[in-house]
Design a protein that fits this description.
Elements lengths: L1 E3 L2 H13 L6 H13 L16 E3 H5 L3 H12 L8 H23 L14
Antiparallel strand pairs: 1-2
């Protein structure tokens, strides 16, 4: 499986990665996926965008956690882990999360990204 962002999100990935000093560009896409899937809304396959942006191999994007990502999609959409649409939902959430993060940062600045991370010190 390969995860690809939309063409429109190609620049967002690079911009956010540079500004947040994340190193590899797959990190912001993982953060975007996590942020999007944490939202209450469900995304529609009808809103799937092109796949002409950043491309990540299965290992680069998921690391050793592929089953966890699939599980999150299955729980949210009540799908079986063998459902052929799972890659589409993963892509939807990566693109949605990138757009959400970009909007939040554009409106409120880069320091607001910290407010999106739960307090782990408790």
């Amino acid at each position: 499986m390969i995860v690809k962002t939309s063409k429109e999100n190609r620049e967002i990935v690079s911009k956010l990665t540079r500004k947040l000093n994340l190193g590899s560009e797959n990190h912001i896409s993982r953060i975007a996926f996590a942020y999007s899937i944490s939202q209450e809304k469900k995304l529609s396959l009808n809103d799937l965008k092109n796949s002409q942006g950043k491309e990540y191999s299965k290992v680069v994007f998921f690391g050793l956690n592929y089953e966890l990502y699939v599980g999150l999609i299955c729980m949210k959409y009540k799908l079986h882990s063998s459902d052929v649409d799972i890659p589409k939902y993963i892509k939807l959430h990566v693109d949605d999360g990138l757009n959400l993060l970009h909007t939040i940062i554009d409106e409120n600045g880069y320091s607001t990204i910290i407010d999106l991370i739960p307090n782990l010190s408790n």
